[in-house]
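Lecture notes, continued. The same structure-token format from the folding unit now serves as the input rather than the output. Read the line below as a description of shape only.
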């Protein structure tokens, strides 16, 4: 698909802000058009090869993620991981990984077109997210480098703690993104919120 014809899962939402009498307590930032690949393999056999290609310490511990040079690997299960890359890295990284693992037992599935990423930050971010998830988001339980699959609203998501601003990255399937953002807007209304999209 050409750059000009791609459409964000949240294309219907323009930059928006709900006033609450003071600066917004929550910021929602969409990062569209990233690369997402689901990797299934036996890490005991393939860890050195995957680490070498991606430049990260693979595999990450359970419910953790590792990152290097804008490539992030999230633990999903004992033999399953999500690889996130900037779109411009995607073909190169996936091509190298597929070439390196040729002949091995693994599955690498491109799910880029079915996912999007909403970063939630601000002083009220955790309060807003707690309205929709049973996951304990206190930094003692869900600190830097933590990730978990859970429910937010009525939607299955992957959450990851953002080390740069202590916010939370939310990864959601494209078909549920519109519903989820509306849920988050409603949850954040009393705190004030701002929505924008990364270029």
């Amino acid at each position: 698909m050409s750059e000009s014809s791609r459409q964000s899962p949240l294309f219907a939402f323009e930059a928006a802000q709900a006033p609450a009498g003071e600066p917004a307590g929550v910021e929602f930032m969409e990062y569209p058009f990233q690369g997402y690949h689901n990797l299934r393999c036996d890490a005991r056999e393939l860890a050195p090869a995957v680490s070498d290609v991606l430049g990260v310490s693979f595999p990450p511990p359970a419910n953790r993620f590792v990152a290097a040079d804008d490539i992030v690997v999230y633990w999903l299960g004992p033999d399953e991981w999500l690889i996130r890359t900037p779109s411009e890295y995607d073909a190169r990284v996936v091509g190298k990984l597929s070439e390196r693992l040729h002949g091995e037992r693994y599955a690498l599935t491109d799910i880029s077109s079915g996912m999007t990423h909403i970063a939630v930050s601000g002083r009220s971010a955790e309060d807003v997210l707690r309205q929709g998830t049973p996951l304990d988001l206190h930094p003692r339980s869900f600190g830097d480098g933590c990730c978990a699959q859970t429910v937010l609203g009525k939607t299955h998501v992957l959450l990851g703690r953002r080390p740069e601003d202590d916010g939370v990255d939310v990864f959601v399937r494209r078909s549920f993104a519109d519903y989820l953002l509306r849920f988050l807007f409603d949850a954040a209304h009393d705190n004030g919120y701002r929505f924008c999209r990364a270029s």
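Point for the exam: The chain has four helices and twelve strands.
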